[in-house]
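Follow-up to my post from last week.
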Amino acid sequence: MYKRLLVYVDSGETRLIELEGLLDLADQLGARVIALTVLAPEPANPSEEETKSRDELEDRAWNFLYQIEDMAFSREIKNSLMLEEGETIQAISSVVASYEVDICATFNYRNIDIPALLDKLDKVPLLLLNQEGQ
Amino acid sequence: MIRISEVICKEGIILDLAAGEKVAVIKELVAKLTELKLIEDSETFLRDILKRENLESTGIGLGVAIPHARTKAASELILTYGYSKKGVDFNSLDGKKSHFIFLIAAPEDQKTRYIMALARLSKTLRKEEARTRLVKAASEDEVVDILKEVE
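User reply:
Got it. Predicted complex:
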């Protein structure tokens, strides 16, 4: 019933250890974990400094995603990685709709407007994990 | 910081992959690396790459697939590339076929370097300029030049 579990992560805020609980859940459900991170859109005419900073941010984001993949793989949990650009809630809801996600999960980030996300998710359940990943 | 253009094995690049199916494409790339004597135990190498392939989609979308593994069969970081004009189904989440197939393997104790290479490659290939230019690459040298300029 729950085959695709999307987790939104923020490479600047999430710690790998926090994902253990989520992987436990995916393991129990036999679900695929889709790890998603979202970057703000690149400015139209970026300065050299902005380009460099953006490059570093994207490097960090991919690095974090592949560490999640490595964790999931070591536990033989199916997984996919996604990096999207845009507004966070819009990106999450778009991935949920496009990839037939059954459960959406994220952490208790202060920068996410949870009511707005719930509104966009419609009937897809949202799991809000605490910083211990529970 | 790892630079893809510096670690890619130029001699292992295949600009026109003959195979049209995922496992066959991986075998074609592995065979080339074996021929170049970059892999000694190709059976173990292939088994480790396919193990991950069976568990997850290494197709990251936008026509890109990155089959990869940490394996005892690699004594150093190995990175090679094959281009498929027809495209190959790598079970990408976006449902699109993969044309740009980069294979990465690393020794089991080189996790950080391996993840850095995967991250750098994924970032580079998200750039439309990289993909557009790789379609037109006519030589192995040109592939390396494109990566050097875009990454």
